[in-house]
Amino acid sequence: MKLGNFYSDAEYSYQEVIKKTPVVSDRMRLIMIYMEKNQKLTPHLHENSEELFFVVSGSGVIYVGDEVIDVKEGDVVHVINNTMHSIESRDGQLSVYAVQAPRP
Questions:
Q1: Per-residue pLDDT tens over the stretch 5-22
Q2: How many whole angstroms from its chain centre is CA 38?
Q3: Which of 52, 7, 71, 65 is nearest to 34 (CA)?
């Protein structure tokens, strides 16, 4: 089953971070995140879910607890449950897959 195309479905906005959710099941959720230069997601946590970030394009920073992780295309970051985290774009557009399981 084709769920969409990360590149052709891309949508960016200077007003807000764009998040699309093409997959939601009882066990997991896939979120496609599109960020313009210098945008940041509000730090948050998921009490019962782990999250895996895969950087599709661009570069930026992923904050995990007290750790600051510089990321670029191809990088993968794992966040365990109940850990504060956030994503920030820096020099340009940043596109990230986020997989949450179990689904929050």
A1: 777 788 999 999 999 988
A2: 15
A3: 7
Is-contact 42 17, C-beta < 8 A? Answer: no
DSSP 8-state secondary structure symbol assigned to residue 82: T
Is residue 1's pLDDT more than 70?
A: no
Answer yes or no: are the C-beta atoms of 31 and 97 closer than 8 Å. Answer: yes
Determine the Cα–Cα distance for residues 65 and 39; give it in Å rounded to an integer: 19
Please give the model's pTM, rounded to 2 decimal places.
0.91
Which fold would CATH assign to domain 18-101? Jelly Rolls (2.60.120)
Q: State how far Cα 73 lies from the chain centre.
A: 13
Structure tokens at 36: 């313009």
